Amino acid sequence: xxxxxxxxxxxxxxxxxxxxxxxxxxxxxxxxxxxxxxxxxxxxxxxxxxxxxxxxxxxxxxxxxxxxxxxxxxxxxxxxxxxxxxxxxxxxxxxxxxxxxxxxxxxxxxxxxxxxxxxxxxxxxxxxxxxxxxxxxxxxxxxxxxxxxxxxxxxxxxxxxxxxxxxxxxxxxxxxxxxxxxxxxxxxxxxxxxxxxxxxxxxxxxxxxxxxxxxxxxxxxxxxxxxxxxxxxxxxxxxxxxxxxxxxxxxxxxxxxxxxxxxxxxxxxxxxxxxxxxxxxxxxxxxxxxxxxxxxxxxxxxxxxxxxxxxxxxxxxxxxxxxxxxxxxx
Amino acid sequence: xxxxxxxxxxxxxxxxxxxxxxxxxxxxxxxxxxxxxxxxxxxxxxxxxxxxxxxxxxxxxxxxxxxxxxxxxxxxxxxxxxxxxxxxxxxxxxxxxxxxxxxxxxxxxxxxxxxxxxxxxxxxxxxxxxxxxxxxxxxxxxxxxxxxxxxxxxxxxxxxxxxxxxxxxxxxxxxxxxxxxxxxxxxxxxxxxxxxxxxxxxxxxxxxxxxxxxxxxxxxxxxxxxxxxxxxxxxxxxxxxxxxxxxxxxxxxxxxxxxxxxxxxxxxxxxxxxxxxxxxxxxxxxxxxxxxxxxxxxxxxxxxxxxxxxxxxxxxxxxxxxxxxxxxxxxxxxx
Lengths: 330, 335
Prior knowledge:
The structure holds 2 protein chains of 2 kinds.
Chain A: H1 2-28, H2 34-43, H3 52-62, H4 68-82, E1 87-88, E2 93-94, H5 95-130, H6 135-149, H7 152-167, H8 186-223, H9 226-233, H10 238-250, H11 252-256, H12 258-276, H13 281-290, H14 294-322, H15 324-327
Helix pairs in contact in A: 1-14, 2-3, 5-8, 5-14, 6-8, 7-8, 7-12, 8-10, 8-12, 9-10, 12-14, 13-14
Chain B: E1 2-13, E2 16-28, E3 33-37, H1 44-51, E4 59-61, E5 66-70, E6 76-78, H2 87-96, E7 97-100, H3 104-107, H4 114-125, H5 130-143, H6 149-152, H7 162-175, E8 180-184, H8 192-209, E9 212-217, H9 220-226, E10 229-234, E11 237-243, H10 244-249, H11 254-261, E12 311-312, E13 319-321, H12 323-326
Parallel strand pairs in B: 3-9, 3-10, 7-8, 8-9
Antiparallel strand pairs in B: 1-2, 1-4, 1-5, 5-6, 10-11, 11-13, 12-13
């Protein structure tokens, strides 16, 4: 297992190095740079004429005049060695300060959503497979189609309405006004939890519907295996039998698509965040691109891809743990 | 120790109700081996699955079915009445009746070591700790002739060869110490040389452990080597039953005769093989009268395709379901 982990870890480092190069190139692709944008913002409408030399001076101030390769190594070196993601030009502070809280909140929404998805879909899928053909099974199938058909933002609005009506929940945001700018405390954390469930439910909704069907299908297959009958024939109690034999293998396709689920959550997050009034990274990413604020955009892209790559790494380890044939190379 | 009467199994399918096993009766004596022979689809596997209540959810036993099993503590268990999920069923499965299957690879879970699965069975049925269970597992692997059992116990099923896996499967079934072993074509998936070794092993183990055995196979040659008694099944009914040696020397039912003729032999190398003509009908289109009449060489028009033959006994210790033998014994089968 140690060797397998190290191999996958090395793979992850290589992937991240390649991704960082790609991210950097993507940041360079839009025409112009922040020096142009800055000069335009500062002097437009003031009647001052700006020369090429002025822009070049700004550019050299910002350090954008150095060759691309050099800037790449400065950038990545800062990240790896000092955790410094560079300057957020438009905010006139460091990227870490701009992104910091938002990154953690995005991560919080992501992990809550994932946990919620699997905590519901895996046991329910197992139950549906065991009770295959029963009324409960058909009910769950109908729910699944509903879940897949209902658009996220609509669900978000509906849930928000009822949450407000029944529980008096605040409309939008991840914090109550009282805690909005308060320092972190137990009270603030609890406040966050109370707000986090809504976006998590909205984002998990379709994934739960989808993964219930996946789990049900693979579990149904696994239940028909001779090894399950054989285990039953040696008197293993049914509950333990279901978890130890078929479920362990049936969960495989769900574990192996954790990365996809993360990706899907990231792409659905902006619209849900817009409806629920959350602050998350997607919105900032868009703004950073419009401003050509390249290091902010780069940091966000890098973070998001890192999370996806890391979750794939976790999924690989889980798969190897679930099925020892994987790490034995058989 | 085990007596089965009027075992009938029905399945509720989308196409309606089918009854692949009808009115099967047999018994197994302690320490003896009963061979169940028949083509695939004759219902021999599901009959034995019913003994452990391992049938799928859409299957049901008929109300006339009686399955009585005398456990080692002397109590009689009425298997047809036992509740699913009850502790007596869990005790029966594995602890009293063990089962091994045709596909040794598929009957092990690939994600646990052989030892893990053996120790699970041992700890379920014998009151013992982890270490003791492991020692017992190693001992059982040694008993079935697996070399280096202390290393093999930690191997995964895919790390073993086919023959070794079947030995391990036997060790697994026996490790919980059953009094009756059901072996469902345990040698069919193996090479002929390994087949002989495994048969030898099972015979030896049966003698040493004094357990009874139900041995399912489609191969009468295998039956001749291992079974004391044989029951020949065709389309869900037992057509002939008796002592193995007698049945093989002097088969009474045309189907048994056909099966014996179909065995390839070295002495008759230049003759053509003589298979039983025709195919086994599907259980949804069960022929009327005697189920075998569509393929029977001695078919009597107007009788065999109309009336179902009852079990008669043309010789002592033999029962046959065939109109050819009903006349000789008409006094007992007037019904």
